[in-house]
Amino acid sequence: MSKSTGIGFGRGWDGREAARQAVQQALDALGGNRPALALVFMAQEFSGPEILQTLIGQLGNIPVWGFSTTCPLSADGEQPRSIGVVLLSGSGYKAHVNWLANFAQDVNGAATQFARAVRNQAGLAQGIIQASAQALLLAADGVNGDASQLCETINQMNIHVAGCLASGDYRQGRTICLGGNHAESGALSALFLGGQLRLGLGMGHGWKDTGWSWKVTRVRDMWVQGLDDVAPARAFAAALGYPENEWAFPPLSDYVRLYALGIETGGPEALLLRSPLRMEVDGNLRMNARVPEGQTAHLMVGDPDACLSAARLAAGEALRSLGSAAPLVGLVLIDQAWQALLEGRMDAFFKQVREALPDIPLIGGYTLGQLAWPAPGAPTAQLVNQHVLIALIGEVED
């Protein structure tokens, strides 16, 4: 492993001890080089503030970015109940964290604040973004708020963006973002990368159209309440064969995430995938990104083999996107639906990624949404579900 990159994992019941182990492993991998920034992937079982306090105690005042997930990931596969840490070391590496605590409570206000920060016209809590920023990593609350409202701002940027919606204990509405000296729910954490750092992106999915489609006839905030003027539970029962009243209760209320809605957006791009977090007891779908009323929604189902192929293609696209920069680390951000769809086949997933990205350290986690700009086949930035997003952080020569 390059001494510009150190990765460590810690596991156990005590989050602080797991964090300490992860940081120490990463520091040992750096071989004495001083870290310039830290990326953190935290299992949902741990306390964000406790983890962050441990990180700051060991690393001092360096930029920290990360999020919670149902399960951190490494090049060897799933790492349950663990904390994964990436440390990057280089005198030419620049990083700056901006933290928006009000993302869930005031999405419009947060989007405006984010836009101002991007334009380098206003300072946030921790300072002013440097104009030399070359790339951006975003993590947002995975349940509350609507990160799709950030896309318009991202479209106006001249830097590569990789983003995700934090996963974790989303049934309780609790997902955590980490940024700077903050670790909270309901927030947006943005890490701007500059200097010699660059970002390469690849994204894809293996969900296919079942042939069923409906018009989205009623939407209220983040709930889809009508498909062809009937409750979504009734529409799903007709298409998939289970009784309507069973969709509101486990296991179907949880597995409903596997059945994405492919939204016709009216543009030349492919269907926009939106996945429910759950089916509510009233038969409505709870989403974490808005679904436009009046559009046609296609019922999508996952194909495991297509997902494996998509993973390899995304990894290859990320490497091509990185251009002449030397890859330092690969971030693997997989929609949580893949965890259920590929149960028992995740070894095959990581084999595909490793073969496309040999000798590149890998780390990541399951997420509730993915965002990339520029993204293959998409003319604009879009928040999507059901995708795998692979982001390679690389280094260019002086």
TrEMBL record:
Q: Where are the transmembrane segments?
A: none
FIST domain segment(s): 34-231
Domain FIST C-domain, first and last residues per copy = 232-374
InterPro entries in the record:
FIST_C, FIST_domain_N
* Protein name according to UniProt: Uncharacterized conserved protein
This protein's species is Longilinea arvoryzae
